[in-house]
Amino acid sequence: QKEVEQNSGPLSVPEGAIASLNCTYSDRGSQSFFWYRQYSGKSPELIMFIYSNGDKEDGRFTAQLNKASQYVSLLIRDSQPSDSATYLCAGDSGAGSYQLTFGKGTKLSVIP
Amino acid sequence: DVKVTQSSRYLVKRTGEKVFLECVQDMDHENMFWYRQDPGLGLRLIYFSYDVKMKEKGDIPEGYSVSREKKERFSLILESASTNQTSMYLCASSWTGDQPQHFGDGTRLSIL
Question: Are B104 and A43 a contacting pair at CB < 8 A?
Fold first, then answer.
């Protein structure tokens, strides 16, 4: 059973701080990873994707991938109250698969 | 931008009714997916389709069926609605299994 594990939280950080969200995955065949943000009552929205080991930056967001450790993370710099949401990590299910495997999400609260 | 449109945001039906949820995507994506999302359980895959008229069971197909007669449209059918099918239903589409999935706004379905 392929799994993506996330700490459910809630993770609370003060406004302006760095929020660090973590994810581990079980399938060594997974190559592509995605971070989604989901506000309460809304659908998931893609915010970052990463395919290669290392860091990928987009504005205040940085995704990090370490395939040897099977670990993916999302850093949010200068956290804002509007970043308060549940963040879902997802990975592809290996060559020839059509699906993504989603974690259950980490709830982030940014305290003003 | 990818647009995935679900036919209803909110729907209320009675136990035993046959319920149709419709989803349309405008990006010529090959793959389409139906999920349900319940508190604490994360996203659970009901069915997916990788081509017209092709369908595959996901993790929780019991009580559901799907139809994909055209590439852009994927329908979820609750054959005989039951109260335990009250949930948020999310449709998604993607190019390939290692590409991000794009979600519709969701349908919050209540079965009374």
Answer: yes
